């Protein structure tokens, strides 16, 4: 910074100012007022001002503003066409979504129908198998019951014979008299019937 101050002091005219002193006056070369503020220059300045703004107005109105207007018009028409296209695409998307939902609904209904049919078929197959198994079981039970009844009746017939012999032997021991086997069998049948 000291170099700049020294360079400024060397460039100043000799005796123009002293080091450390401030300068309060400005020298005018040629004297007078600042040219734009001189009254004799007002008319040419106003003419140039009018010419400049007139030329600027013509350039703006003939070249720049029409270009800006066309750009704005193009932008507005592009925005409108994009909005129209987006509305069309949105409508198509909504139609596609509705068709998709309808397809899903139909497919779901078909799947439910298939499931119900499979369930009914399975139930009918199970019922027919169960009925055939129950019929086979009933036949086996009936055959077993018949065998049991035959064995029971055979056992009962043997029991009657054994009981009549035992009763005859007991009566003979107790009374000393012998009772006929047919009489004892008749009594057993009477007891069984009642």
Automatic annotation (TrEMBL):
Residue runs in coiled coils? none
Name the Gene Ontology molecular function terms of this record: proton-transporting ATP synthase activity, rotational mechanism; proton-transporting ATPase activity, rotational mechanism
Q: Which UniProt keywords apply?
A: ATP synthesis, Cell membrane, CF(0), Hydrogen ion transport, Ion transport, Membrane, Transmembrane, Transmembrane helix, Transport
Task: Kindly indicate whether the keyword Transcription regulation belongs to this entry.
Answer: no
Q: Which residues cross the membrane?
A: 46-65
User: Region Disordered: what ranges?
Assistant: 9-35, 111-130
Q: What is the predominant subcellular site recorded for this chain?
A: membrane
Q: Output compositional bias ranges, type Low complexity.
A: 116-126
A single GO CC term for this protein reads: plasma membrane
State one Pfam family annotation: ATP-synt_B
Localization per Swiss-Prot or TrEMBL: Cell inner membrane; Cell membrane
Task: Give the source's domain of life in one word.
Answer: Bacteria
Give membrane topology per the record.
Answer: Single-pass membrane protein
Role of this protein: F(1)F(0) ATP synthase produces ATP from ADP in the presence of a proton or sodium gradient. F-type ATPases consist of two structural domains, F(1) containing the extramembraneous catalytic core and F(0) containing the membrane proton channel, linked together by a central stalk and a peripheral stalk. During catalysis, ATP synthesis in the catalytic domain of F(1) is coupled via a rotary mechanism of the central stalk subunits to proton translocation.
Quaternary context: F-type ATPases have 2 components, F(1) - the catalytic core - and F(0) - the membrane proton channel. F(1) has five subunits: alpha(3), beta(3), gamma(1), delta(1), epsilon(1). F(0) has three main subunits: a(1), b(2) and c(10-14). The alpha and beta chains form an alternating ring which encloses part of the gamma chain. F(1) is attached to F(0) by a central stalk formed by the gamma and epsilon chains, while a peripheral stalk is formed by the delta and b chains.
Which protein family is it in? Belongs to the ATPase B chain family.
The UniProt entry, under HAMAP family, shows: ATP_synth_b_bprime (MF_01398)
**Which named protein is this?**
ATP synthase subunit b
Q: Which organism is it from?
A: Methylosinus sporium
